[in-house]
Amino acid sequence: MSMKRLLLAFAFALGSWSQAALAEDKAVLQLDWIPTGEHAAYFAGQQRGFFRDAGIDLSITRGYGSGDTVNKVAAGAAKFGVADLGAVLAGRAQQSVPVKSIAAVYTFSPHSLFVLRSSGIKGFKDLAGKRIAVSPGNSHRIYFPEVARRVGIDPESVTWITTDASAMAAMLIAKRVDAAPFYSIHQYYQNKAAQQAGEEIVALPFVSAGFAIYASSLVTADETIKTDPDLVRRFVGAALRSFAWARDNPVETCKLHVQKNPEVLQDECEASQKATMGFVFNDHQRATGQGHFAPDRLADTWHAVAESLKLDPSWNPAQAVDDSFVP
Q1: How far apart are CA 113 and CA 124, in angstroms?
Q2: Which of 50, 187, 284, 298 has the fewest CB atoms within 10 Å, counting from its CB?
């Protein structure tokens, strides 16, 4: 048992230390995007004291895409992050970015492209010659070539328009682009905004092209794993506890999320939160255990990344994950 755990146990036995006194390790969790109902479990867990119970004083900051989160965790700007496994694999294989995924969050991919119904785009084949918004490091761009291959179009036939993640929906609704990449989880509230402009958003899910791979994951730097494995273990445990509580208490979870993020409406949070839980708790999660990576799906995920980025398919993706901290 580490010194930290010994102190926590001693304090608990005495019953005399306040919870605040126990929260000794300050840590930043950098999300992969702006806080939406998709991230409600983290904010609920923070406010319910699950991280404090684990001896962590957790701060949560917005993200700017998975690639950006991976780079910031590698640079030490955040101790932990939420990032797509594809971005972790690509960063490690291409540039030896010293970051690992320490727990699977989404066991299959909610990647999709949003289009306007009025555009006449009904499937991926209709995207040839179209403009697609994308944020720097966005995992959708990594995977799109494989989706294009599966449906029989040239991935080079589309034009990517790089922009900030927070501007993509507005650009789609204003018809400055023909499609924008989002997790399907976000369709409800993005469509509300589109309806105000007299439009309707339709999702083109990547999984409809047979694209079933891991997506969102918790990440940390190699250095943190090496120097403070006990912190990593406590963080992962508190995060998984947060998701279990959020699954069982969806309305209260979103009330806590909205308190911290008043720009998010309660109904939008509940819709995104409900959709999110389907990617976290499902048959694959029950078969492998929450947070763990199954070797076959990990291999499929790497195959998709390698195919899309023209990387060495023989590279071992296991060197980019470490789920030994999952309870």
Answers
A1: 9
A2: 284
* Coil vs helix vs strand at 104: strand
For helices 295-309 and 85-95, the axis angle rounded to 10 degrees is 60
Residue with tokens 């479990």: 41
Structure tokens at 29: 């969790």
Q: How far apart are CA 107 and CA 213, in angstroms?
A: 7
Q: Provide CB contacts within 8 A for 148, sequence distance 6+.
A: 124, 154, 155, 157, 158
CA distance 173 to 309: 30
Helix/strand/coil for 167: helix
Residue 7 has pLDDT above 70, yes or no: no
What are the two backbone dihedrals, phi and then psi, of residue 89, each rounded to the nearest 5 degrees?
-60, -45
Is 265 strand, coil or helix?
coil
pTM for this predicted structure: 0.82
CB atoms within 10 A of CB 327: 11
Q: Quote the distance between the C-alpha of residue 288 and its chain's center.
A: 19
Cβ atoms of residues 131 and 158 within 8 Å = yes
Q: How far apart are CA 108 and CA 275, in angstroms?
A: 13
Strand 131-134 and strand 159-162: the pairing is parallel
> Which residues are 218's β-sheet partners?
82, 103
Q: What is the pLDDT of residues 39-55, one digit of tens each?
A: 999 999 999 999 999 99
Q: Are 272 and 183 in contact (CB under 8 A)?
A: no
Q: Give the CB-side neighbour count of residue 169, counting CA atoms within 13 A.
A: 22
Q: What is the number of other CB atoms lying within 10 angstroms of the CB of residue 165?
A: 23
